[in-house]
Amino acid sequence: MVENNQLRRLLSPRSVAVIGASTRPDSVGRAVFANILLGDYRGVVYPVNPKARSILGVRAYPSVLEVPDEVDLAVVIVPAPAVPQVLEECAQKGIPGAVVLSAGFKEVGGRGVELEERLKAIAREHGIALVGPNCLGIINTDPEVRLNATFARSMPPRGNIAFISQSGAVGVAALEYCEAEHIGISQFISIGNKAVLNENHLLAALRDDPRTDVILLYVENLEDPKGFLELAREITGELPQKKPILAIKSGRTREGARAAASHTGALAGSDEVYDALFHQCGVLRVETIEELFEYAQALAQQPAPRGDRVAIVTNAGGPGIMATDACVRHGLKLARFSEETTRKLREGLPPTASVQNPVDLIGDAQEDRYAHALRLVLGDEAVDSAIVICTPQMMADLTAIARTIADAAREHKKPVLACLMALEAIDEALRVLEEARVPHYRFPEDAARALAEMARYTSWVHRPRTPVRTFDDVDREAARAILTKARAEGRTFLPEPEAHAVLRAYGFPVLRGELAATEDEAVRRAQEIGYPVALKIVSPQIVHKFDVGGVRLKLEDEGAVREAYRAILDGVRRRKPEAEIWGVFVQEFVAAPGGVETILGLKRDPHFGPLLMFGLGGVYVEVLRDVTFRIAPIRELGAYRMIEGIRAHKLLEGFRGQPPRDVDAIAECLLRLSQLAVELEEIEELDINPLIVFEREKGARVVDARILLGGSGEGEGTGESL
Ligand code: ADP
Ligand code: MG
Fold it and tell me: What is the rounded average pLDDT of the residues 228-236?
């Protein structure tokens, strides 16, 4: 167990031993030691190297055991095979934390994997908090600490953005970028192979770090997604001192699609799952390092916008229009100024100026016009934020304008982003903006994107908090009895009648249907249910009924039922002679024109837990993969977000004369599925396909469902995949 105090000592050590510090030029051991020494570290640093008397003029010790002082942190750079021995010595010395930079562990496979296991065992045995191995190191810019224990060439300025990186190389690039762009960092932690400490431990430490206001993550996988979900949710939205988290998750592949057994399984590639996870805990996912820092700058330096209404102030028409387009494209709204604002704008600007949003001050504008416009628009209740654009013109004194922007930003509690579309002679202007903590961008598009991200975070923080709903009309025992019976019969696949019964027990609106073992019984059932009916084959070996000619629809009378019954059985016996046939499912037929077909799914992921899926049926799922995922349990708001999250959701809202559909009914089904997922752990996969959704207030119906139980390999129950 890693304790808080231990992590604090690791990240803000008062003394550091650099084990493997070296005099050899171009060696990592030299680079790290030099970075600590020359980086003005406020604590005491001890080089450890049995072969050197001194490193960079500092007396070296042959072993950490001979360091005559208490050591908070060991920075380890010795070759991989020597690391276990070094760690043992650290334990003996009572050092609570280590950062192991050495490579040659899990990442190289084979013997490296074993070595890493030994590292873990030693750390566990002695309770050492260990970062790495195979990492770049850590940086803490706290003036009380000032530690650069990395081998990176650059040192970013001090600031309130923390960065956790799984990749050392991405870390190096990011640090260089920060230095060049003057982006202030509070802490940087390269977590490498995550043998002991993973992103969750460090997130928890940064949550409690008063010098960190924004947390950035670069990850390739999450070690403990459930822990992450809870922790990130707390940090981004629940604490008094909330902090936005921005993340790059690389490896956008579909590794999860491997021979999966259901639609839901096949579509639940890892990337969609990460999207779902980040959505559920308010983590803002981005694609590039540049975006990561651009958004971070805005969030770290400016107050959060209250809403999504932007004012644009510009001295040129074209960039103003581009900014407008970009804002709208990214989901922001152009603010509508009050009449008073418009009138006063008019009074202080030349007649050719545009006093609507975007406000165009015209090319010869100087700082006085900017001051006038900014004071008015930022003072307007209908404005949540501003983008100020300045293109270089003969008349403009960029530095004076920058000062005006800085003043305006200081005076109002609304975010102001600047866009100076110039390259030459702007250093002074940029310095003014940076000093005032006004983020600046080269192009309007970049400013708009950053602002949109800020608004996205605001809407997360202010989202309505809805509960996880538990339906009390659920008959768990009835559902469990069905699963137990299938198990007792050695089956993991539950054909339609059983799947329907489970869903009915969970309060789903299931279409009426009965199993019939003979032709006469089918006719009787059809009469009870009422025409028209559908007939479908029921066999524990047949998963895709339609594909084997096992589905007949819209049967209007007895004759049609008899004919269909024989046709289905003949067809199936011919195509799947080995299939054991229980009979046919006689089902109420619903006329499709009134409804839209949707798909709801559940798939249990060993790493993430139960995943829920929603999409429209047919081509939307199969061709466009237009589906959303969430990890159960979901809340009411989450259910609606899943529905809104598919690209084709407009089809549900009413489109081209089509009536709006009963989205509430879908949401309720998703919430029931969420409860089922949590309560019936035996269910490995479940597809409801289709759930037909009618017009608003007319409900929805489960038409077809299949269930696969866990525990015996994929699709084993049928020898066929779902
Ligand atoms: P499978 O998915 O095993 O091939 P389904 O029961 O889903 O079999 O039937 C295939 C399609 O037939 C459904 O997607 C739906 O469009 C239609 N269908 C099936 N049963 C009914 C029914 N009772 N009422 C209306 N349409 C139905
Ligand atoms: Mg189906």
Answer: 97
19-45 per-position pLDDT tens digit? 999 999 999 999 999 999 999 999 999
pTM: predicted TM-score of the whole model, two decimal places: 0.92
How much distance in Å is there from the Cα of 574 to the middle of ligand 1?
Answer: 21
Distance 590 CA to ligand 1 centre (A): 10
How many angstroms from the chain centroid is the CA of residue 639?
17
Helix (H) or strand (E) segment spanning residue 320: helix 317-329
Atom number, ligand 1, closest to the C-alpha of residue 587: 23
Q: Are 710 and 677 in contact (CB under 8 A)?
A: no
Cα–Cα distances (Å) from 123 to 11, 100, 120, 130, 261, in that order, read 17, 12, 5, 7, 40
* Cis status of the peptide bond prior to 660, with omega within 30 of 0: no
Pocket mutation for ligand 1, best pick of 542, 704, 706, 708 (most atoms within 8 Å of C-beta):
704
The confidence score (pLDDT) of residue 625 equals 82
Which domains, and CATH codes, for the chain?
Answer: 4-154 (3.40.50.720), 307-452 (3.40.50.261), 512-589 (3.30.1490.20)
Reference 374, options 326, 337, 399, 325; nearest CA is: 337
Six-digit token pair at 150?
A: 């990395």
CA distance 529 to 397: 82
Q: What is the DSSP letter of 305?
A: P
DSSP letter string, 659-674: PPB-HHHHHHHHHHHH
Rounded to the nearest angstrom, the distance between the alpha carbon of 703 and the centre of ligand 2 is 8
In this structure, which residue's CA is closest to atom 6 in ligand 1?
704
pLDDT at 717: 42
Name residues contacting ligand 1 (CB within 6 A).
Answer: 511, 534, 536, 544-546, 551, 553, 587-590, 592, 597, 689-690, 703-704
